[in-house]
Design goal:
With 166 residues, this protein is mostly helical. 74% of the residues lie in helices and 0% in strands. The N and C termini lie far apart (55 Å).
């Protein structure tokens, strides 16, 4: 079956943003299977919404908005289900050279701390780590610039507390 122009255009645009989508998934999913499921859910939502994309915002802003909203929806659904500990992830250790291993350990501590944040805080941190400006965050999340700055300071304090208590 031949692809339509819309399908081809969508695939081309999406290729540039695969890593961005994966980062959203990594923030809201705890294991490989959940990350893959969320990735597919986001792709489906993007495809369903793509015909409505008017180009009034940057494509990346539109994509972030849909990806984060899809992740939040899935996250809320999962919270209603019984939570179980994923022992498999807690025991994984990949040997690295000493300095790389230390950096990886710090990254893991950061992601563990981020997992303790609420869903909005996770979105803010993810966008911050993507070097998005507060103006871009405001456009993506619909939260005022001033409120974002206050929230970011509080989030930094929380993350320091989480990582210092380890």
């Amino acid at each position: 079956m031949k692809k339509t122009d819309l399908e081809i255009e969508f695939e081309i645009k999406l290729k540039d943003y695969k890593l961005l989508i994966y980062k959203v998934c990594r923030m809201y999913a705890n294991n490989h299977d959940d990350i893959q499921d969320l990735y597919q859910d986001i792709i489906i939502q993007l495809w369903k919404s793509y015909p409505k994309f008017r180009g009034e915002a940057k494509f990346s802003t539109w994509l972030y908005r849909i990806a984060i909203n899809t992740a939040l929806t899935n996250f809320r659904k999962q919270k209603r289900n019984i939570q179980t500990s994923d022992v498999e992830l807690q025991n994984i250790q990949i040997p690295y050279e000493e300095d790389i291993g230390l950096k990886e350990e710090q990254h893991q501590q950061l992601y563990t701390a981020i997992q303790q944040l609420n869903d909005v805080e996770k979105s803010i941190v993810m966008l911050y780590l993507e070097d998005k400006s507060y103006d871009e965050m405001e456009e993506i999340l619909g939260i005022s610039n001033a409120t974002l700055r206050v929230k970011m300071n509080r989030i930094k304090d929380k993350l320091r507390t989480f990582t210092n208590n380890k």
